[in-house]
Amino acid sequence: MPEPMLPGIPATASRFEPRPSDVFLASFPKSGTTWLKALAFATLNRVAHPRCSPDHPLRHRNPHECVDFLEMVFAGCADGDDDVFAELPSPRVLATHLPYPLLPTRIAAEGNPGKIVYVCRDPKDAFVSTWLFLLKSMAAMANGAHTAEYKIEEAFELFCDGRSGAGPQWRHVAGYWEASRRWPTKVLFLKYEEMLHDPVGNVRKLADFMGCPFSIEEEAARVVQDIAELCSIDALKNMEVNKSGSQKYFKNEAFFRKGVARDWSNHMTPAMAERLDKIVEEALQGTGLTF
Ligand code: A3P
């Protein structure tokens, strides 16, 4: 984990009070977190925030400002602070990049309050997306000053070694995959590529799992399609807030690039792809999870 996040892990474990209606969105970085935040937020809050309203929060705020990362917020709190999320009305939707074994025990496993939705992505695309994101962020932070180029070969060695944010990727996905197999009503496991293929079907699945299925009337009014459209990369990318706004560390536009599957083939050599596939295949052997 990035060093500034470390204090957030014990702080989340000791101070966060989960509720039965909580929804936790979990992911390895650059695997579709922003998209999942937008979809879950829009779906869960569709009565308070009708999807076509010009005041819809997603039209004025980046998805990361609508749904906080638990460990990041707690990492920024002083030692004596209480549960900073206690004031949020139910149902709350919160996110995490924490690997499954680092989730507070009060959240993980069946019988504990809340549900978990995990999104996973082909590790090659997650790797390329991470590398390009860091490249862009480093250039932005340098503010025009020259920085040594962060070469893909260098980033790739670290990734294969498991030395990436919340890494190794394959262990991250395996942890949540196993939890979803064990407790299917507690953990929903989504795949980014399947979401691209069928966004509407996946929004329905998400709503059913979160306990707020779409009614016959909502289906007839095409609410599901509208939510999928509101949260599509083209729609979000073109909102003013995502073109010009910024977060604590990153510009909002950095969270939206191509949003497609298999872009890795434009950046990685076949040998790199084969090597990463082999590492992941070996690590996931026997789990039933494939990419
Ligand atoms: P690419 O860099 O491959 O384009 P995260 O949200 O976990 O940081 O992941 C970022 C990746 O998700 C980026 O992938 C980004 O373009 C893509 N993405 C962001 N919003 C999306 C959306 N609404 N639909 C599909 N993909 C999206």
From TrEMBL:
Q: Could you tell me the superkingdom of the organism this chain comes from?
A: Eukaryota
Q: What is this protein called?
A: Uncharacterized protein
Question: What's the source species' lineage?
Answer: Eukaryota, Viridiplantae, Streptophyta, Embryophyta, Tracheophyta
